[in-house]
Amino acid sequence: MTKPIFIAGQWKQGGGPVRATYFPADGSLNAEIATASAEDVEEAVQAAERAWREPQWRNRMPHERAAVLYRVADLISQRVDELASMQTRDNGKPLAETRGLVMSAAATARYFAAACETLDEQLPAQRSSEFMTLSVHEPLGVIAAITPWNSPIASEMQKIAPALAAGNAVIVKPADATPLAALALAELFEEAGLPKGLLSVLPGRGSVVGEALAAHPLVRKISFTGGTGTGRHLAHVAAEKLIPTSLELGGKSPTIVFEDADIELAARGVVYGIFSSSGQACIAGSRLFVHAKVYDRFMGRLLELTANLRVGHPEEPGTHMGPLISEAHLASVAGFVDQARAEGGEILCGGTRLAEGHMAQGSYYPPTIIAGLDNGASVCQQEIFGPVLVVLKFDDEADLLARANNSVFGLAAGIWSEDFRRAWRIGRQLEAGTIWINTYKKFSISAPFGGFKESGLGREKGRLGVLEYMQQKSVYLGLSDTPNPWAE
Ligand code: NAD
Known about the structure:
With 488 residues, the chain is of the alpha/beta class. 39% of the residues lie in helices and 20% in strands. The strands form 6 sheets. It has a 7-stranded mixed beta sheet with strand order 13-14-15-12-11-17-18, sandwiched between helices. Strands 8-7-6-9-10-20 form a 6-stranded mixed beta sheet, sandwiched between helices. It has a two-stranded antiparallel ribbon with strand order 1-2. Helix 1 packs parallel to helix 8, helix 3 packs across helix 7 and helix 10 packs across helix 11. The chain is globular and about 85 Å long. Nicotinamide-adenine-dinucleotide binds next to helix 8 and helix 9. It holds the Pfam family Aldedh. This is Aldehyde dehydrogenase. Belongs to the aldehyde dehydrogenase family. Keywords: Oxidoreductase.
């Protein structure tokens, strides 16, 4: 049966073509999903515009608005296994990972519910006895939330929760390959009693549904997570309309292992940083710099740990790496590795797709490590979004910093060193929105997240993340009984 889409509180067969999604582990049909048309976008936006202005939502006390998010968090927590399994079938990530993403979605809903209840307004310093000034925040209106396929439920909640907490309506355009998580969230918000129209979920092609949504005159913010090229295009769309955007984009994050690093800690952190999610993570630590003094020792351990990773069926317990999202994506990853070979790179492990036994049916690519290239090589400069690590050697701190920062991206970076003064000094000079010292790919909902340079604009998460979905207003309150002397 075709899965309907969610427009303004109604489950409907959208006007776009029905699309199929496939289980990346064996290519079998996963679901058939209705998609939206431009007319559906129009209907959802008009309903959203009415809904956020409705006094029953606008004037609802913050703790009552928060209650909906708390209820959704509880509903998610009751269905972790079901939601994780659905997501594993959608994008092929191992169950342990998708469970983590589901729990993170529940935590995000709770966090922004609490932020909503406890948000303070400001009383700016008073400069006159004639009037007092207050600063308040208002919702923006209708928000377009456009998300990628790699961590659906978590990235969607990261936009829906603060946007609703701030009093807006949200229309989600999930990735073509993974619309099921967003549709499941719509069901849970409906069950939690969110008034109709405040949330719509419109699956469909980015170039049709995403484009129509972003360009709609009533959409007052585009909150986008995805590739840098799409983000740049959406920034142009937003510039035409003079509306804010938040853009969470791609990365090519450097990880640095100093000569005084705890080798075991660092090697395990590096393996996790690049190969978890099969490298399909914006913050994957895909460019590794190792100090010449420990290069051989560190690389020996890194290759050992990599050889022990279990690549396999994502529903099997103990699998470290599942398949890549699709055959097309596998071809792109393999193309980068071929290019590295052509540029003189030495493939230390991996480098050829896996096709033994059940893997012949899926899009499996092994953890791959490439050495012998310089930082200017294509695989050091372009985002591969797959299980491919490039290794570079260094021995001078200034040269290391120049090379690590020589990238159009600036999403994240890792530093492994027992010298905290040095780690701090390097961390402050690295051009990246997130720095991990002696850890990697760890997240807290209370720490703002976003990119430097072409990795993005704006920040998500953090207590003040809710303000990204609001606009500030100053209110002047006259205190004087004396009429203004300017005109009599
Ligand atoms: P993508 O840019 O191709 O697609 C992302 C979303 O944008 C999808 O929903 C897609 O349908 C939509 N889209 C495409 N063209 C559009 C258009 N013209 N108008 C409106 N919407 C459009 O990215 P992807 O391949 O789905 O995801 C992988 C990328 O996402 C990687 O570059 C990765 O680094 C990035 N990413 C970034 C973060 C972060 O937080 N910085 C997190 C996850 C993924």
